[in-house]
Amino acid sequence: SNPLHGQVHQDMQQPLCHYFIASSHNTYLSGDQLLSQSRAEMYARVLQAGCRCVEVDCWDGPDGEPVVHHGYTLTSKILFRDVAETINKYAFVKNEFPVILSIENHCSIQQQKKIAQYLKEIFGDKLDLSSVSTGDPRQLPSPQDLKGKILVKV
Length: 154
Prior knowledge:
One of its GO terms (cellular component) is cytoplasm. Keywords: Hydrolase, Lipid degradation, Lipid metabolism. The protein has a five-stranded mixed beta sheet. It has a single domain (20-128, 147-152), classed as Phosphatidylinositol (PI) phosphodiesterase (TIM Barrel, Alpha-Beta Barrel). By secondary structure, the chain is an alpha/beta fold. The mean pLDDT is 89. The chain has three helices and five strands, in the order αβββαβαβ. It is globular and about 45 Å long. α2 (80-90) runs parallel beside α3. β4 (99-106), α3 (109-123) and β5 form a beta-alpha-beta unit.
């Protein structure tokens, strides 16, 4: 493959909403969305392929541990903690631009608190905790400003 295709050839100083973002749907699935295996390694694969927005479907799991899987199907379940650790390991291997976790939240308050705890513990300083309070999208930070950051959208 052409190494030039991996380089950025545009202004990355514009507000985040000015860009198309390479996104993954049902990132955790290794196959079809009814019967396949959920695997944390799928996050490693898509992040290394240049994806910058990954989907994490969170559900209450046993022993107070939130799990990731495709709800109301026979897909297998993986621990949210394992998903977060995999994302942390691979988020910035290929490039430093921000990674967005698109969290689909089906958890009880108790397990939501566990998710928040894992996000803080695992991502540490990479987790962008600044809140954008303005309704004006021109005020959003740029990909350049957010290099090395993990953003959470719920």
